C-alpha cells in the first residue's frame, strides 16, 4: 500500500541480469536551503544529508561570504559566495566517499560552483547554480547565463556532465523542438523566460532536463511552494548530458526533508560508481603530552639508555645519525605512541533535535492540509515551531560557548596558559577555511590536486632559487683579523644549554624528533647527541637529513588563490638546530661587535622600539628646528629568499669568521633541499641554491651580517646622511631588511638610493619600487623633484608610513599611530566578545586576557609617543569602554572612572611607566648608541616663532618635573634599576590623573 499522494514503490525483480551484477547507485541532490547563515542551520542540512543517504548535495542560497572548504560532522563542504554580502551563494556537501573521489572544485561566482570527481568510467563534473529570479533584470540574467556557458565550455568534453540547482525556471510539457532534451513529464502550465533560457543552454550543451523524464505524482514533481501555500512550481532541476541520460535512474522531490526552506530537496539516483582514491594524510606526530607524566619520562629515559648502550658508535656521520634517529623514534613509538585525532561532538543538544523533529511533523501536517484555512492554521504553528528551533539553537551555541569558557577558567586555575589560549583561539576563529583552489602563473584556476601540488612545488622552487646577481661584489685582498672564538670540541654543557633554548610545542622536521623528546631524553641522549655534533664539527659537515626541510604554507592577506599571498615556513630537523645553536652561541658575540650601530635586527638588547624612538626624535627635532629631512623607506623583494650565498661566505671571511665555521656553514647549505607540505602529504624535493635557510637559527645572523656589509659599502661617502655627532653622520636606521635611508636633501637621498640599490644587487637583493616610499619632513616640499631607483622606477611620495609597525607622518603627529593602534586593539577586543559576555569566566580571568591580548596591541611603541591631554583622554576613553564592557557596567550604574581604575591603571599611567623604562634603558646605554644620542640630539637650524610643538623630549621633561627632577641629574639615578623603577611607578601614579 502507498499513502495518499505518494508515488508507487518500485520493486526489484530478480533475473539473471541483476542477481550477480552489483549496480552501484550514487545519490545526489540539489536544495535551495534559503540560508546557511543561521545558527545551527548547517548541522540540520547535514542531518538531512544522512537521513536520505546522499553522496553529493548541491546547495543554493547559502549566504556565506567568500569561498573555501571546511568539514562538519564528518562531511566536507565547499562553497562559493559573495565577497562582501550575505547573499546568494552555492556549494556542495560531500560524504567521505565523494570527498575521496574529488578531483578538484572551482568557485566561479556567488551563483556558480563546479566540482569534478573520479568515477569508474572516467571523470564526472557537476555544476551547481542559483539562477536569478524571473523578476530580475535582463542584464543580470544575461551575465549569469554567459558565466554558466563559459563554465560548461571549460568542462572536458569526455566528462559525464551534470548541471543542477535552483534555476527559477518553469517548463511546460510541450516538447515541440525540444524532444531531445525534454521529457514528457513537465508540470508547468507555461514556460517562463527563465525556462526558455534553461532550455536554450541545455540544447546548446546537449543536456537533458532529468526531472521531465520520470513520471511521479505532481506533489513529487513540485520543488517550491509559495509562503501562502497556494502556488507550487517545479523550478529546481537536475540535468545530465544526453549520452549519459540512461545512467540517471530517477529524479523527484523529497517533501520530508526540512530545514525551514520553501524549496523541497530534489534527489536524483545515478547509476555510477565513484572511484575510491586513497589519499595519504601523512604520519601523525608523537603524543608529547605524555611527557608531562614523570613515570612516562622515566620509562623514556630507561628505554633510550638501554638502546644507546646496545649500539656501537660509528665514525660515519650518516650511520651515526641513522642510529640516533632510529633509537629515539623507536623509543618514542614504544613509550609515547602517536597522537590520536579527536572528533568534536556537535554542539546542538538532544532537546533541540527533538524540536527539529517536531517541526518536521508539523510540516508534514501542513503538506497534508485539505483546505486553505487548515493550511494557514498549521502554517502559523510551523512558523512558531521554527522560531523555537532557532532560539534553541542559539541557546545551544551559548551553552557550548559557556562550557568552553568554563574550561578556560579551569585552565587558568591550574595555570595552564597554553590550554587557555588554545580555547580562546577556538572561540574566536571564524570556522571558515582558507583552502581555495590556487591559480597558475597565467591566472588559470587549477582544479586537480595534482595540478595544485605541482604549482606549489613550482612556486617555492622559483622563490628559493633566484637568478645570480649580474654583478658580484668586489672584496679587498686582505681579510679582517680572525675572531677569537671557541674552536674546541663541543661539550655536553653546550648541548644542554642549546636544548634549553629550544621552544616547546613546535613542529618537528622530517625525522619527527621534537624538542620535547630531546629535552626529556636524559643524559644518555645528550651524550650521544654530543658525540654526533662533535663528529659533524670535526668533519665540517652534517647528515643529509639535516639539510632537508618541509615548507608549510600560511595564508597572508588578499586573494588566497594566488600563491604569492601565502607565506612559507620551513620545518627543519630539531637535532640539527641544536648543532647550529652551539655554533651560533660561539660566534654571535664576536660577530655582533663588528656590526654597525645602525642595525638593530636580531641583536641582543636591541629592539624595534629603539629604532622607532630614534626616528621619532629625529623627525620631531627636524620639524621643530625647520631642518629638511627626507626618509626613504626601503622594501626588498623577498630579501631572505634571494640573498646570494657565495656573497654571504665572502662577507663572513671579510669579517674575520674562522674558516672552519664558514666551511661548516657551506656544507650545511650545500645540497640543501625542501618539499612542500600539501593535503595529500609532501611534494617531491627540490634543491635550494639561494637564500638563507628558513627556520635555521643561523639565518638571522648570516643575513644581517650580509646587509651590514652592503650598507658599509653603499653609505661610505662623507656627505651622505644627516649631521649626527661631531665625528659622524647618520645615514640609515635598519631592523634586518627594514631600512630607512636618511638625508638632508633630495639630491643626497637620490645618490644614497642609487648607491644602495647598486650594492644590494651584488648580494642578490632587489628593491621593490611599489612598496618603497618617500617621506618628506619640514623644509621646502620640492614637489617637482621625484625620487627614483636607478633613474627608472619612481618612488611614491607619501605623507604617512608604517615603519616597524608604527605610523610616521610628515608633521610628526602621533595621533595617526594612536588611532591605528586603537583600531587594531578594538578588533582584538571584538573577537573576544563571547568571553566578555560569559558568566562562566571570572572577572579576574577576563582582565588577564584583556591585559594579555588587547592592551599590548594598543600600547605597542607607546613609550615613544609624545602625549597631550587630548590624546590621553582619547586613549583612556577606549580603555574605559573596554573595561566597562568586561565588567558589565552601564551608565545606569553610576560608577565613576576612578572606581573602574581600581581594577587596572589608566592606559596613560601605564604609558608613563613604559616611557620611564625606555628612558632608563636608553640612559644606561653607552654614548655611541643611536638611542642615547637621539635623546639629546638637536639639528642645526632655527625654531619657528611662537609656542614650539610638543615633542617626546618635552613630555618626558614634564614627567620628571612632577618629581622635582631634570634631565641632567637623572643619568646617575637610571643606573640603579630598582630606584629608577620606583621613580617610574611614582610618576605614573600622578601622570595617570587628567
From TrEMBL:
Domain of life from the UniProt record: Eukaryota
Residue ranges annotated for the Reverse transcriptase domain, each copy included: 535-808
Pfam families per UniProt: Exo_endo_phos, RVT_1
InterPro entries with a match to the protein in the record: DNA/RNA_pol_sf, Endo/exonu/phosph_ase_sf, Endo/exonuclease/phosphatase, RT_dom
PANTHER family from the UniProt entry: REVERSE TRANSCRIPTASE DOMAIN-CONTAINING PROTEIN
Name of the featured protein: Craniofacial development protein 2-like
Record-level Gene Ontology MF annotations: catalytic activity
Recorded name of the encoding gene: Cfdp2-002
